[in-house]
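fyi for ur records
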Amino acid sequence: MDFGWTKEQEMWRASVRDFAQSVIKPIVRQMDEEGRIPPEVIKGMADLGLLCCTVSEEYGGMGASWMEAAIAAEELGRADISVAVPVLYLVMAAWGSVFDHYAQAPLKEMILPKACRGEAFLGIATTEPGGGSDILGATRTKAERRGDGWVLNGEKMYISGVAESRAMGGIHMTLCRTDPQAGHRGFTFFAVPLKDTPGISTTLIEDMGRAGISTGGFTLEDVYLPDTYRIGEEGRGFYYAMEGFSAARVLIGATCVGAAEAVLEMGVDYIKQRRAFGRPIAAFEGVQFPLAEHAANIEEARLLTYKAAWMMDRMWQDGSVSAKDVARLAAMAKLRAPVYAWQSMNEVADWFGAAGYSKEFPIEMGIRGVRSYSIGAEGTQNIMRLIIAREILGAEFLPYRWGAQQV
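which gave:
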């Protein structure tokens, strides 16, 4: 068991940290207020190899391992505690990998090089107005064969990157029902371009946090796509989605670790200097004990996250780890990291007192940003608990299956 980093990983972390601290951190408040990530940041990320970093070199990526992808997510979270830039990064890294593994070659040649250069957005669209985590029950968007292609109808909502995709082009990997009678095997992914595609209308939602990247939805009305826009095998979309969710959850864990550490370090500097009743408030047990708890919690989240990333690498490299094992650890990381990050940021805000409730300090951006990860991004907290329990007990004990059996 080795808890160290290779020389290459240390160099990678240093490169990402230098870029993130010098280019991203100084303008986080600006991004939050303007509601956009500046083009120079996106270009800088592309030049460093951050955009779709997990994509193979053949299509413009750097073929990064999941350990390397997690390292980058942690450093981006450390610099942008509002987590807007990390959202852009993790969506394209996690789902870019799925796209790279399963999309047809002509489609990959058309999309991936542009996405890696920051000239196109690659996003994910599974959530619908009637529900998010319940893909089997809530998905109404459908795709029907029409000649040599497909006709898509439906609506997706609470989707990241709608404005970016509409402006710069690219695709959203959109999950559709292709066989309503086939259960898990009745879903297929399609690459849906939001820009200049007849039959697509978009809407934007103003989130309370991570304002630098857009959130919204789109409606599909008789949208025709050639079969080349189908991603992977027909009927395998649900399984591809589960792979993508596990990857995204690992990167969410790393992002939250980085953001939480950045805010905790800010708090430590403050409590050493702020004095009350004749001594630094760091000298009070009422401050020290919560600090110790939060530091331990963040370390727990870090270990879960990097173990999950390590397992993902083993799964893809030699098959020594199963997708179910990865799903379990990724869910554990997602269950713990966002909550621990949010709790530690709330604690630091308490240390700052009235100043912590102001925009003079960036703490409030972090509180607003990481909250999105525990509310529902890549699955709610109770879905993470279901996944973990499923892998411990077996799928036959899933509550919704048991309820159906009793009825």
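The chain has a mean pLDDT of 94. thats all i got for now
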